[in-house]
Amino acid sequence: MDHLCVAHRGFSGIAPENTLAAFKLAIDQPFVRWIELDVQLSKDGVPVVIHDFTLERTTNGTGRVKDTDWKELKRLDAGGWKSTEYQGESIPALAQVLDLCRGRVSLNIELKTAGDMYPGLEKAVLREIVARDMENEVVLTSFERSALRRAKELAPGIRTGLIIDARPDDLAKQLEGLQCSFLSMGYPRLDRKLMKDLTGRGITVMAWTVDDRSIMRRLASLHPELMICTNWPDRWEQVFLHSKHRMWHYIRNLFIK
């Protein structure tokens, strides 16, 4: 796997997060193998891609996502807050993102919910995935464990993952109980021992959110299979691909001499 690059909410360092512009820019980077995104439901039950429960930070709208119909949501400007270049960029439906990414990049889809905030979220998301035969191209992740359980009940074969920013002693046991084969963890919590234990149990681990090159290098030393989620995929390229090229030239020169 070699520290797979995961574009956090797309290439969100440059383009407005969780928009088609950010996803297209991420896909354009040949080294980006995964994209992470957030899904909620509109008032009328459409899975939409947005991080915050409220609209104010990343759009020109107000109020809660769950209280707004899809017809209203898609009219909002979700790009102008980032720069005038992206003014008019809209909130995408999950269906649009799946159509864009299918066969091109894998998706880490966070079920963005809390408690019973979004009844039917898992079913709506799975409906869009299954309709496109993309079950093998996604992992459904969440902080909300009940959402992961519901997803597994609806689609036992779907891959799921827990998001956590803590380090419980029985983490491996918790993942087993949730039937999760994926873990999304805040990077300061990770170390070599935990990585060895989890990967030895068949758990894929992703570190979030890492934008500092020196931290990327330190994390790389923990385990070769650690996935790295970043807002700036170009920095991932500078750390990993450039270092590989330097090593290749060094070895090549040894043999030439």
From TrEMBL:
One biological process term in Gene Ontology: lipid metabolic process
PROSITE patterns named in the record: GP_PDE
One Gene Ontology MF term: phosphoric diester hydrolase activity
A Pfam family recorded for this sequence: GDPD
Limits of the GP-PDE domain: 3-240
Gene3D superfamilies linked to this entry: Phosphatidylinositol (PI) phosphodiesterase
Stored InterPro entries: GP_PDE_dom, PLC-like_Pdiesterase_TIM-brl
PANTHER family: GLYCEROPHOSPHODIESTER PHOSPHODIESTERASE (PTHR46211:SF14), GLYCEROPHOSPHORYL DIESTER PHOSPHODIESTERASE (PTHR46211)
Protein's UniProt name: Glycerophosphodiester phosphodiesterase
UniProt organism field: Paenibacillus terrae
